[in-house]
Amino acid sequence: MSPPNGNDRLYGLLVEFDNPDALVAAIKRTKEAGYTKLDGYTPYGIAEVCDALGFKYSEMSTVMLCGGLIGATCGFIMQWWTNAIDYPLNVAGRALMEPFQWLDGWPSYIPITFETGILTCALTGLFGLLAVCGLPRPHHPLFNVPHFAAVTRDRFFMAVEATDPKFELAATKDFLLGLQPLSVAEVPT
Amino acid sequence: MSTGVVEHGHHGPGGAPHVQPLPPAIGGRHTMGSVVDAIGDIATCVRPHPKEWYLSFGAGFTMLGIFGLAVTYLLVMGVGIWGINVPNAWGFAIINFVWWIGIGHAGTLISAILLLLHQRWRTSINRFAEAMTIFAVMCAGMFPLLHMGRPWLAYWLTPFPNNFGMWPQFRSPLAWDVFAVSTYFTVSVVFWYVGLIPDFAVLRESAPTKIQKWIYGILSMGWRGSAYHWRRYEKVYLILAGISTPLVFSVHSIVSFDFSVAIVPLWHATIFPPFFVIGAIFSGFAMVLVLAIPLRKWYHLEDFITEWHLDACAKVMLGTGMMVCYGYFSELWMGWYSHSKYEWGTNFQRMFGPYGWSYWCLIFCNFVAPQVLWVKKWRLNPVVLFVVSIIVLIGMWFERYVIVVTLTREYVPSTWGRYAPTIWDWATFIGTFGLFFTCFMLFVRYVPMISMTEMRELLPKRAGGRDGHGIAEGPP
């Protein structure tokens, strides 16, 4: 996608800090200055960074709940259909009382229902996380900046993306330098 | 806070804040970079591996060879080479299955339950405890698989459409076991891998050779530490911990149903699920200590696995050990209180019958030996702790042995028999140690054995960390 201000060779500007509090303060000020397309990069998850970006709640709990419920339902139906409908087994855990006869011996299906629910919940968690985050993505433009590697070690970064409507290379760079970072780098796409 | 001491503030009865200082979770004076170097350089082989690694790997690999031999002979000859017979149709296979899977449970307890309980001391031991879980479950899975006699037909356990027109019998705990153990294994791997993604990203950048960068790069999925990703990641990690907690209880409860659904005296008891789960955690913590004590010494990780960690593990071991002993007492009590001559008689057989020696071994290992852990000096002594842990592991093995040989003397004397393992039973059992230690030593060599990500979060603020805030904490 080509940015509206013509910086189609630029992903954005990358700002470096050496502690999380400076990063949080910088994100808050950049937000106040009217920038919207920005992201923080940290060696470990920091709740304040994400809060400052305005991304308060992750959607992953909903995704995993749905995954788990689907798995549990399928697990129950599988057992019920195979042991009560397709090849009825009249052993153990009977429920022969009307009107629940159709449920067959449902209590004995609970352990596997639980296990399949947990299994699909965990798998949706892993694959959902990757899908929602757009991973795997080994060649992100940010990796073009050599010192960005320190994000896995002891540096904290903020990127203002060129697709931001307020983004003007010179003006934005001046603004970011005002935040007293360790460095400001242009990120080529 | 500036000394790196993690404090828990809570309000006393008078309403005044009462701060109870805890020991530092990280010793020494570490920075974010030094944490990465201390842990990551082991996995990237920048720091040479000690000779003990080669010895352990060699020993493990040799035992893996014994496993290969035992399994090959088993596949040629059939399960008749084992000591199993009619009163005791499972023998070593189920003893070792339950023992190994129990060991795995401590890994999940540390990584999931202690995360939910905000126990910061879990952070440095969770990674290798999770690895221990995965490898222990692999070893456990070998036994039911091989006991089938024709392991290549193992897929018959799964509900797949087939031309016999048959389905598994889902009302049997043995069918539940298949789902429980395979789910447990898969979820443990997912949990472990999710925890490893940011650490693989660290290694991707710090590894010295191109091929290492490439492999860790693939494993890290291109993780770049975006704040949006972190929020989702932490949510997923927290939910995985949340679902692993009931999972670990369900797995060993289901394992105990394999026994307690049968009408064998002393098996058919409602105490079995909690008794099994607690025993699993007891033996698992013993294995964690058996692995942690040498590792911290060989790799000089005393700053990360501190005395506080050993102390905490020892306390959990002591606590769960006492609960297990309560289970032994309860069995005895119920045998007497039920007025069932079979229950009482089986108790009597256990203690004074032909296998009575194993019962008293069990009482010594699980009840007498852990008592030394009441003394703080001994809890902090790695040698004492190591020896006690080994004794506990032996004791928990005997617990399953005692349960299984109950079958040799139950209701009708005409069904009584004897059970003795053969050399092939032992070879298979020893062989699974080979599988375990080979995998574990490879893990130590190629994967960061302590979470670098969470350790940096634990650092004090002046060192770039967060004093451990944010671990397992959702948005405000």
Radius of gyration of chain A: 26 Å
Classify the helix fraction of chain B into a percent range.
Answer: 55-70%
Please give the domain count of chain A: 2
CATH-assigned fold name of chain B: Formate dehydrogenase/DMSO reductase fold
Strand order of the largest sheet of chain B: 1-2
Supply the helix-strand structural class of chain B: mainly alpha
Compute the number of strand runs of chain B. Answer: 2
Mean pLDDT of chain A: 85
* String of helices and strands of chain A: EHEHHHEHE
Strand content of chain B: under 5%
Principal-axes geometry of chain B comes out as: globular
Report on the architecture of this protein.
The complex is a heterodimer of chains A (189) and B (476). By secondary structure, chain A is of the alpha+beta class. Chain A has two domains: 10-57 and 138-188, no CATH class; 60-133, no CATH class. Chain A contains five helices and four strands. Chain A has helices spanning 20-32, 47-53, 60-86, 110-133, 169-177; strands at 10-17, 38-41, 156-161, 183-188. Chain A has a four-stranded antiparallel beta sheet with strand order 2-3-1-4. In chain A, helix 3 packs antiparallel against helix 4. Chain B has 476 residues and is an all-alpha fold. In chain B, 64% of the residues lie in helices and 2% in strands. Chain B has 15 helices and two strands. Chain B has one domain (23-158, 170-463): Formate dehydrogenase/DMSO reductase domain (Formate dehydrogenase/DMSO reductase fold). A two-stranded antiparallel sheet of chain B has the order 1-2. At the A-B interface, strand 2, helix 2, helix 3 and helix 4 of A face helix 1, helix 5, helix 7 and helix 15 of B.
